[in-house]
Give the backbone structure.
Amino acid sequence: MTSSGVVLVGGSGVVGAQVAALLARRRPDLKLVIAGRRLDAAQAVAQRYGAEGMAMEVDAPTLPESLQRALIVGLVNDGHDRLLRLALAQGHAYLDVTRWTERQKQALLTVAAHGHPRAPVVLSSAWMAGVASLVARDAARAVAEVERVGIDILFAMADQAGPNSTAYMDRLSEPFHTMAGGEWVKRGGFLDGRVADFGAGGRHRVYRFDTPDQANLPAIVGAAQVDARIGFDDGKATALLHLLVRSGIWRLLSRPMFNSARQALLYNPGPGAAHRIRIAVAGRDAAGRPSGTTVQLADPLGQAHLTALGAVLQIEHLLGADAPPAGVYLGEALLDPEHACRQLRAEGVEITAV
Protein backbone atom coordinates (compact mmCIF):
# COMPACT_ATOMS: atom_id res chain seq x y z
CA MET A 1 0.00 0.00 0.00
CA THR A 2 1.03 3.60 -0.44
CA SER A 3 0.88 5.83 2.60
CA SER A 4 0.93 9.54 3.32
CA GLY A 5 2.50 8.79 6.68
CA VAL A 6 2.83 6.42 9.61
CA VAL A 7 1.08 7.65 12.76
CA LEU A 8 2.37 6.06 15.97
CA VAL A 9 -0.45 6.54 18.48
CA GLY A 10 1.31 6.23 21.80
CA GLY A 11 4.59 6.91 20.06
CA SER A 12 6.01 8.75 23.08
CA GLY A 13 5.61 5.71 25.34
CA VAL A 14 8.21 3.07 26.21
CA VAL A 15 7.43 0.83 23.23
CA GLY A 16 6.38 3.65 20.92
CA ALA A 17 9.67 5.52 21.25
CA GLN A 18 11.55 2.34 20.35
CA VAL A 19 9.31 1.82 17.31
CA ALA A 20 10.13 5.39 16.25
CA ALA A 21 13.87 4.81 16.72
CA LEU A 22 13.82 1.59 14.69
CA LEU A 23 11.80 3.13 11.86
CA ALA A 24 14.01 6.22 11.74
CA ARG A 25 17.02 3.97 11.26
CA ARG A 26 15.51 1.30 9.02
CA ARG A 27 13.13 3.50 6.99
CA PRO A 28 14.41 7.10 7.04
CA ASP A 29 12.24 7.83 3.98
CA LEU A 30 9.01 7.55 5.95
CA LYS A 31 6.91 10.49 7.05
CA LEU A 32 6.61 9.63 10.73
CA VAL A 33 4.08 11.20 13.08
CA ILE A 34 4.35 10.74 16.86
CA ALA A 35 0.91 11.10 18.43
CA GLY A 36 0.41 11.16 22.17
CA ARG A 37 -1.91 12.43 24.87
CA ARG A 38 0.71 15.01 25.90
CA LEU A 39 1.93 17.21 23.07
CA ASP A 40 5.25 18.03 24.76
CA ALA A 41 6.14 14.36 25.17
CA ALA A 42 5.18 13.57 21.57
CA GLN A 43 7.23 16.48 20.25
CA ALA A 44 10.25 15.46 22.34
CA VAL A 45 10.33 12.02 20.71
CA ALA A 46 9.56 13.48 17.28
CA GLN A 47 12.49 15.89 17.46
CA ARG A 48 14.91 13.04 18.15
CA TYR A 49 13.94 11.24 14.95
CA GLY A 50 13.05 14.00 12.52
CA ALA A 51 9.35 13.28 12.86
CA GLU A 52 6.25 15.36 13.47
CA GLY A 53 4.61 15.49 16.89
CA MET A 54 0.91 15.89 17.53
CA ALA A 55 -1.53 15.59 20.42
CA MET A 56 -4.18 12.87 20.25
CA GLU A 57 -6.65 11.46 22.73
CA VAL A 58 -7.24 7.82 21.84
CA ASP A 59 -10.90 8.09 22.89
CA ALA A 60 -11.45 11.12 20.63
CA PRO A 61 -8.88 10.72 17.83
CA THR A 62 -8.57 13.06 14.85
CA LEU A 63 -6.07 13.32 12.02
CA PRO A 64 -5.09 16.34 9.93
CA GLU A 65 -6.33 16.48 6.35
CA SER A 66 -2.75 16.11 5.10
CA LEU A 67 -2.83 12.47 6.27
CA GLN A 68 -5.39 11.24 3.77
CA ARG A 69 -4.05 7.69 3.44
CA ALA A 70 -2.09 6.94 6.58
CA LEU A 71 -1.05 3.83 8.44
CA ILE A 72 -2.34 4.19 11.99
CA VAL A 73 -0.39 2.13 14.53
CA GLY A 74 -2.07 1.59 17.89
CA LEU A 75 0.53 1.39 20.67
CA VAL A 76 -1.92 2.26 23.47
CA ASN A 77 -5.06 0.46 24.55
CA ASP A 78 -7.95 1.36 22.22
CA GLY A 79 -10.52 0.12 24.72
CA HIS A 80 -13.57 1.58 22.95
CA ASP A 81 -12.34 0.97 19.38
CA ARG A 82 -12.39 4.71 18.66
CA LEU A 83 -9.05 4.60 16.87
CA LEU A 84 -10.13 1.54 14.91
CA ARG A 85 -13.41 3.21 13.96
CA LEU A 86 -11.53 6.31 12.75
CA ALA A 87 -9.36 4.14 10.50
CA LEU A 88 -12.37 2.27 9.13
CA ALA A 89 -14.39 5.44 8.52
CA GLN A 90 -11.58 7.30 6.75
CA GLY A 91 -10.04 4.35 4.90
CA HIS A 92 -6.69 4.29 6.73
CA ALA A 93 -4.66 1.15 7.26
CA TYR A 94 -4.63 0.07 10.91
CA LEU A 95 -2.21 -1.97 13.00
CA ASP A 96 -2.84 -2.76 16.67
CA VAL A 97 -0.37 -4.54 18.99
CA THR A 98 -2.06 -3.95 22.36
CA ARG A 99 -5.15 -6.18 22.58
CA TRP A 100 -5.67 -9.19 24.79
CA THR A 101 -7.93 -11.97 23.50
CA GLU A 102 -11.32 -10.51 24.43
CA ARG A 103 -10.44 -7.14 22.95
CA GLN A 104 -9.21 -8.85 19.80
CA LYS A 105 -12.66 -10.44 19.50
CA GLN A 106 -14.20 -7.02 20.15
CA ALA A 107 -12.16 -5.53 17.29
CA LEU A 108 -13.28 -8.28 14.91
CA LEU A 109 -16.91 -7.54 15.77
CA THR A 110 -16.34 -3.82 15.21
CA VAL A 111 -14.88 -4.49 11.76
CA ALA A 112 -17.69 -6.90 10.89
CA ALA A 113 -20.32 -4.35 11.90
CA HIS A 114 -18.65 -1.68 9.77
CA GLY A 115 -18.44 -3.78 6.61
CA HIS A 116 -15.48 -4.53 4.37
CA PRO A 117 -12.57 -2.20 5.23
CA ARG A 118 -11.00 -0.06 2.52
CA ALA A 119 -7.44 -0.76 3.74
CA PRO A 120 -5.67 -3.54 5.67
CA VAL A 121 -6.64 -3.97 9.33
CA VAL A 122 -3.97 -5.98 11.14
CA LEU A 123 -4.42 -7.26 14.69
CA SER A 124 -0.98 -8.26 15.93
CA SER A 125 -1.47 -8.46 19.68
CA ALA A 126 -0.15 -11.96 20.24
CA TRP A 127 2.84 -11.98 22.60
CA MET A 128 5.41 -9.30 21.71
CA ALA A 129 3.40 -8.03 18.72
CA GLY A 130 3.19 -11.55 17.32
CA VAL A 131 6.88 -12.41 17.63
CA ALA A 132 6.32 -15.51 19.79
CA SER A 133 3.79 -16.95 17.33
CA LEU A 134 5.98 -16.12 14.33
CA VAL A 135 8.87 -18.01 15.90
CA ALA A 136 6.49 -20.87 16.70
CA ARG A 137 5.39 -20.94 13.06
CA ASP A 138 9.01 -21.02 11.94
CA ALA A 139 9.75 -23.91 14.33
CA ALA A 140 6.63 -25.73 13.10
CA ARG A 141 8.10 -25.97 9.60
CA ALA A 142 10.19 -28.90 10.89
CA VAL A 143 7.07 -30.84 11.94
CA ALA A 144 4.79 -32.30 9.28
CA GLU A 145 1.68 -32.42 11.50
CA VAL A 146 1.62 -30.06 14.49
CA GLU A 147 -0.26 -31.35 17.51
CA ARG A 148 0.87 -29.13 20.40
CA VAL A 149 2.57 -25.77 20.88
CA GLY A 150 3.84 -24.56 24.24
CA ILE A 151 4.95 -20.97 24.84
CA ASP A 152 6.71 -20.30 28.16
CA ILE A 153 7.64 -16.72 29.00
CA LEU A 154 10.17 -15.42 31.52
CA PHE A 155 9.47 -11.80 32.45
CA ALA A 156 12.43 -10.03 34.03
CA MET A 157 11.56 -7.92 37.06
CA ALA A 158 14.22 -5.36 36.06
CA ASP A 159 12.89 -4.99 32.52
CA GLN A 160 11.44 -1.79 31.13
CA ALA A 161 7.66 -1.73 30.77
CA GLY A 162 5.01 0.80 29.89
CA PRO A 163 1.70 1.34 31.71
CA ASN A 164 -0.16 -0.60 29.01
CA SER A 165 1.77 -3.71 30.02
CA THR A 166 0.21 -3.39 33.45
CA ALA A 167 -3.31 -3.48 32.01
CA TYR A 168 -2.43 -6.76 30.32
CA MET A 169 -0.82 -8.27 33.42
CA ASP A 170 -3.66 -6.96 35.60
CA ARG A 171 -5.88 -9.65 34.06
CA LEU A 172 -3.70 -12.55 35.24
CA SER A 173 -6.46 -14.13 37.34
CA GLU A 174 -9.19 -13.81 34.69
CA PRO A 175 -10.47 -17.12 33.25
CA PHE A 176 -9.97 -17.73 29.54
CA HIS A 177 -10.21 -20.51 26.95
CA THR A 178 -7.52 -22.51 25.21
CA MET A 179 -7.62 -25.37 22.72
CA ALA A 180 -6.93 -28.80 24.21
CA GLY A 181 -7.51 -32.00 22.25
CA GLY A 182 -9.23 -29.97 19.58
CA GLU A 183 -11.82 -28.63 22.04
CA TRP A 184 -12.08 -25.26 23.79
CA VAL A 185 -11.39 -25.60 27.51
CA LYS A 186 -11.87 -22.96 30.20
CA ARG A 187 -8.69 -22.20 32.15
CA GLY A 188 -7.93 -20.33 35.33
CA GLY A 189 -5.42 -17.51 35.15
CA PHE A 190 -2.04 -17.96 36.87
CA LEU A 191 -2.80 -21.56 37.85
CA ASP A 192 -1.65 -25.00 36.63
CA GLY A 193 2.07 -24.32 37.01
CA ARG A 194 5.05 -26.15 35.63
CA VAL A 195 8.82 -25.64 35.62
CA ALA A 196 10.26 -24.40 32.34
CA ASP A 197 13.92 -24.46 31.33
CA PHE A 198 14.98 -21.13 29.81
CA GLY A 199 18.54 -22.20 29.06
CA ALA A 200 20.92 -19.43 30.10
CA GLY A 201 18.00 -17.85 31.97
CA GLY A 202 17.69 -20.84 34.29
CA ARG A 203 14.69 -22.91 35.36
CA HIS A 204 11.59 -21.11 36.57
CA ARG A 205 8.02 -21.95 37.46
CA VAL A 206 5.45 -20.56 35.02
CA TYR A 207 1.65 -20.41 35.12
CA ARG A 208 -1.14 -20.16 32.58
CA PHE A 209 -2.24 -16.76 31.38
CA ASP A 210 -4.40 -15.32 28.63
CA THR A 211 -2.71 -14.38 25.37
CA PRO A 212 -4.14 -14.29 21.83
CA ASP A 213 -1.54 -16.84 20.67
CA GLN A 214 -3.68 -19.56 22.27
CA ALA A 215 -6.72 -18.52 20.24
CA ASN A 216 -4.91 -17.84 16.96
CA LEU A 217 -2.26 -20.54 16.58
CA PRO A 218 -4.67 -23.50 16.46
CA ALA A 219 -6.17 -22.03 13.29
CA ILE A 220 -2.82 -20.96 11.83
CA VAL A 221 -0.74 -24.14 12.33
CA GLY A 222 -3.54 -26.66 12.92
CA ALA A 223 -2.45 -27.54 16.47
CA ALA A 224 -4.99 -29.31 18.67
CA GLN A 225 -3.45 -27.75 21.78
CA VAL A 226 -1.69 -24.43 22.43
CA ASP A 227 -0.65 -23.38 25.93
CA ALA A 228 1.01 -20.18 27.13
CA ARG A 229 2.49 -19.73 30.58
CA ILE A 230 4.41 -16.91 32.24
CA GLY A 231 6.62 -16.44 35.28
CA PHE A 232 9.02 -13.87 36.71
CA ASP A 233 12.76 -14.27 37.08
CA ASP A 234 12.21 -13.59 40.78
CA GLY A 235 10.78 -16.86 42.06
CA LYS A 236 9.42 -15.24 45.22
CA ALA A 237 7.39 -12.74 43.17
CA THR A 238 5.96 -15.56 41.04
CA ALA A 239 5.07 -17.62 44.12
CA LEU A 240 3.43 -14.64 45.85
CA LEU A 241 1.28 -13.79 42.84
CA HIS A 242 0.25 -17.44 42.44
CA LEU A 243 -0.71 -17.56 46.12
CA LEU A 244 -2.78 -14.38 45.83
CA VAL A 245 -4.61 -15.77 42.79
CA ARG A 246 -5.17 -19.27 44.17
CA SER A 247 -6.47 -17.94 47.51
CA GLY A 248 -8.91 -15.54 45.85
CA ILE A 249 -7.22 -12.50 47.36
CA TRP A 250 -6.19 -11.21 43.93
CA ARG A 251 -9.83 -11.13 42.83
CA LEU A 252 -10.65 -9.01 45.86
CA LEU A 253 -7.72 -6.75 45.01
CA SER A 254 -9.17 -6.31 41.51
CA ARG A 255 -11.74 -3.87 42.88
CA PRO A 256 -11.15 -0.25 41.83
CA MET A 257 -10.33 0.82 45.39
CA PHE A 258 -7.19 -1.34 45.26
CA ASN A 259 -5.92 -0.09 41.88
CA SER A 260 -2.88 1.61 43.40
CA ALA A 261 -1.93 -1.51 45.39
CA ARG A 262 -2.06 -3.69 42.25
CA GLN A 263 -0.12 -1.12 40.29
CA ALA A 264 2.60 -1.10 42.96
CA LEU A 265 2.89 -4.87 42.71
CA LEU A 266 2.80 -5.20 38.92
CA TYR A 267 4.37 -1.99 37.65
CA ASN A 268 7.91 -1.46 38.88
CA PRO A 269 9.87 -0.99 35.65
CA GLY A 270 13.63 -1.16 35.82
CA PRO A 271 16.50 -0.06 33.57
CA GLY A 272 16.11 -3.09 31.31
CA ALA A 273 16.84 -6.81 31.21
CA ALA A 274 16.65 -9.70 28.76
CA HIS A 275 13.25 -11.08 27.80
CA ARG A 276 13.16 -14.85 27.29
CA ILE A 277 10.66 -17.16 25.60
CA ARG A 278 10.79 -20.95 25.28
CA ILE A 279 8.73 -22.41 22.43
CA ALA A 280 8.11 -26.15 22.06
CA VAL A 281 6.37 -27.62 19.01
CA ALA A 282 5.36 -31.29 19.02
CA GLY A 283 3.64 -33.48 16.47
CA ARG A 284 4.49 -36.08 13.84
CA ASP A 285 6.85 -36.26 10.88
CA ALA A 286 5.86 -37.20 7.33
CA ALA A 287 6.06 -40.91 8.24
CA GLY A 288 3.73 -40.48 11.21
CA ARG A 289 6.45 -40.81 13.84
CA PRO A 290 6.58 -38.50 16.89
CA SER A 291 8.53 -35.34 16.08
CA GLY A 292 9.20 -32.02 17.70
CA THR A 293 11.49 -29.07 18.16
CA THR A 294 12.22 -26.57 20.94
CA VAL A 295 13.47 -23.04 20.42
CA GLN A 296 14.89 -20.56 22.94
CA LEU A 297 14.38 -16.88 22.14
CA ALA A 298 16.08 -14.08 24.03
CA ASP A 299 16.16 -10.35 23.40
CA PRO A 300 19.00 -8.85 25.48
CA LEU A 301 17.33 -5.43 25.16
CA GLY A 302 14.10 -6.58 26.78
CA GLN A 303 10.40 -7.01 26.11
CA ALA A 304 9.73 -3.42 25.00
CA HIS A 305 12.43 -3.72 22.33
CA LEU A 306 11.07 -7.10 21.20
CA THR A 307 7.53 -5.73 20.97
CA ALA A 308 8.80 -2.74 19.00
CA LEU A 309 10.59 -5.08 16.59
CA GLY A 310 7.41 -7.07 16.08
CA ALA A 311 5.49 -3.88 15.34
CA VAL A 312 8.17 -2.61 12.94
CA LEU A 313 8.15 -5.87 10.96
CA GLN A 314 4.39 -5.49 10.52
CA ILE A 315 4.71 -1.82 9.53
CA GLU A 316 7.39 -2.55 6.95
CA HIS A 317 5.29 -5.32 5.45
CA LEU A 318 2.22 -3.09 5.22
CA LEU A 319 4.30 -0.47 3.40
CA GLY A 320 6.06 -2.94 1.11
CA ALA A 321 5.42 -4.11 -2.43
CA ASP A 322 3.83 -7.34 -1.13
CA ALA A 323 1.44 -5.58 1.24
CA PRO A 324 -1.90 -7.33 1.64
CA PRO A 325 -5.07 -5.95 0.04
CA ALA A 326 -7.87 -4.43 2.10
CA GLY A 327 -9.12 -6.91 4.65
CA VAL A 328 -8.72 -8.11 8.24
CA TYR A 329 -5.62 -10.07 9.23
CA LEU A 330 -3.86 -11.60 12.21
CA GLY A 331 -0.31 -10.26 12.20
CA GLU A 332 1.32 -13.58 13.08
CA ALA A 333 -0.43 -15.22 10.11
CA LEU A 334 0.48 -12.42 7.71
CA LEU A 335 4.29 -12.38 7.74
CA ASP A 336 6.64 -15.04 6.38
CA PRO A 337 8.03 -16.59 9.60
CA GLU A 338 11.45 -17.48 8.16
CA HIS A 339 11.96 -13.90 6.95
CA ALA A 340 10.75 -12.54 10.29
CA CYS A 341 13.27 -14.66 12.20
CA ARG A 342 16.10 -13.46 9.96
CA GLN A 343 15.11 -9.86 10.63
CA LEU A 344 14.90 -10.46 14.38
CA ARG A 345 18.36 -12.03 14.45
CA ALA A 346 19.75 -9.10 12.47
CA GLU A 347 18.50 -6.82 15.26
CA GLY A 348 20.26 -8.82 17.97
CA VAL A 349 17.52 -11.25 19.01
CA GLU A 350 18.89 -14.70 19.84
CA ILE A 351 16.83 -17.59 18.39
CA THR A 352 18.37 -21.01 18.90
CA ALA A 353 17.07 -24.57 18.58
CA VAL A 354 17.81 -26.81 21.57
Notes: Residues 5-123 form a domain with the Rossmann fold fold (CATH 3.40.50.720). The chain has two domains: 5-123, 131-302. The first strand starts at residue 5 and ends at 9.
